[in-house]
Amino acid sequence: GSDGPPGGEVEKAQRAAEGSSPTIFSKILDGSIPANIIYKDDQCVAFRDVAPQAPVHFLVIPRRPIPRISRVAESDAQLLGHLLLVASKTAKAEGLEDGYRVVINDGKQGAQSVYHLHLHVLGGRQMGWPPG
């Protein structure tokens, strides 16, 4: 597969530095950057992706800034489970009854461009396999 267009996510991921904060997501959480929020509770927020890769593409992020899925601890288990439950509930609310994909990118080779854990939920079209 291709790495996508110049300036795309893969290129952003190559430039992104872990620990450079505040991230765009912390600015969405504090309200200093607007977002199209479709779900929120005391632990997480879901909002539409600004560069959607499918007819439905939203992100679920924890309010607590965990930088990477590879950096989680046993104590994060409840929160991680909650993020998946919210992804499922929000996908249903978005009409994705025929299925969808949940993606978590980790690090440079995983094309992670924002170092604040986020679940991509993509649906509304047939997904291909293998991904990437």
From TrEMBL:
Catalytic center residues: H118
Domain of life: Eukaryota
Pfam family, one: HIT
Domain HIT: 24-132
Catalytic activity: adenosine 5'-phosphoramidate + H2O = NH4(+) + AMP
GO molecular function, one term: adenosine 5'-monophosphoramidase activity
SUPFAM superfamilies named in the record: HIT-like (SSF54197)
Gene Ontology process terms (BP): lipid catabolic process
Motif Histidine triad motif, chain ranges: 116-120
Parts of the chain that traverse the membrane: none
GO CC terms, sorted: mitochondrial matrix
Annotated family: Belongs to the HINT family.
Name used for this protein in its record: Histidine triad nucleotide binding protein 2
Organism of derivation: Podarcis muralis (Wall lizard)
Gene transcribed to yield this protein: HINT2
